Each structure stands twice: as structure tokens, then as C-alpha cells.
């Protein structure tokens, strides 16, 4: 998704729903993104995570990012 260059830190970029249909410990899900990116992953509630900006972005420095959630 497009993000304004002047968007403040903490701007929500994406909302993700994750689930594993297994039960118990086999059904637990953990998500992460690379620490080198200016984004962070926050658990919002239950099976939902949000990707938010960790700092202001500078288009002259980096024009676009490819964020992979693992």
C-alpha cells in the first residue's frame, strides 16, 4: 500500500489475520519481519497483527519496500 512520506511513526500499513487450524501448541502462530526495515509488527488482538511504520520514511533514501511477514 502507498504511504505518505510525511506519515508519522506508528502509521498502520497493513492488518493481517493469521491462524493455524491445529489445536494447542501446534496451533500457535508467531509472526515476524526483518529488523532492518523501518516497520514493526504489532499484535493487535487474537489472531490479528498490524504492520506499522517504526519511523518516518524518506522516499529519496528508499523509494519502496518489500515487506515479508514470516
- SS summary, helix count: 0
SSE run: EEE
| Cα separation of the termini | 18 Å
Computed Rg:
14 Å
- Helix coverage percent: under 10%
Average pLDDT confidence is: 88
Strands side by side in the biggest sheet:
1-3-2
pLDDT < 50 stretches: none
Beta-strand percent range: 25-35%
What would you call the structural class?
mainly beta
Number of distinct beta strands: 3
Give the overall shape: elongated
Main sheet overview: 3 strands, antiparallel
Task: Give the structure's gist in a few sentences.
The chain contains no helices and three strands.
Keywords summarizing the entry:
mainly beta, 70 residues, single chain, elongated
Please describe what this structure looks like.
The protein has 70 residues and is mostly beta strands. The protein is built from no helices and three strands. It has strands spanning 12-17, 39-45, 48-53. A three-stranded antiparallel β-sheet has the order 1-3-2, with no helix packed on it. Strand 2 (39-45) and strand 3 (48-53) form a beta hairpin. The protein is elongated, with a radius of gyration of 14 Å. The chain starts with 11 loop residues before the first strand and ends in a 17-residue tail after the last strand. The model has no long low-confidence stretch (mean pLDDT 88).
